[in-house]
Amino acid sequence: MKNHLPNAVTLLNLLFGCMALAAIFRGDVPAVALWIAAAAVADFLDGALARALRVHSPLGAQLDSLADAVSFGVVPGAIFYYLLGGTAAGEGTAFAAVPGFLVSAFATLRLGRFNLDSRQTEHFIGLPTPAATLFALGWLLIVHTDALGWGAALGMPVIIYVGIAGLCWLMNAELPMFSLKFKSLAWSGNEIRYIFAAAAILMLFLFKAAAPALIIAAYILVSLVQYWFTSKRSL
Asked: Which of 98, 108, 100 is nearest to 71 (CA)?
């Protein structure tokens, strides 16, 4: 039974991703946020369970990538498709929104490269797909609630296209990003994770709907600053 528990949680990740997609296409933004959050928790728990139970299998690795391709690949692409008016009536509008799904294509490319890259054990190379999805969710929440007064600007198609291009590049760039996964609860070796987690909680209280996008932007910035000052320029 315990051998199948991590895989069951992985399938929950995929199920929650499907629910997020359904919410996007009916325009239920609060539900989108809820289901993406649930998928992210399931994505974290399946690996934690596998390590705790000492259960590892090739099937689990394949399921994890397939689930992530939906929850953190198709979903962020659908968010940008929605933001570009793709769910509105009219073929012209839908066609102009198709570039949103470039995020899905490049997220899948990133997942495939991750599976073949033995360097990404202690850190990531390129923006992880769950982080890209949280950024897309934050963008959606800013537009939906006009958080920080940025709604109109981030709702402009030209700005959205720039955001899409930036995410596609970041996910596959040769840029190191620190891992947020704790291998132990000790302070030593986890200093940056604890500090960043505390800062993220503070940002949630301060910026509310805008927090997901700002947290991921901060994650990218901190990763690049850490890389620069530790001079890890060869991976």
From this structure: 108
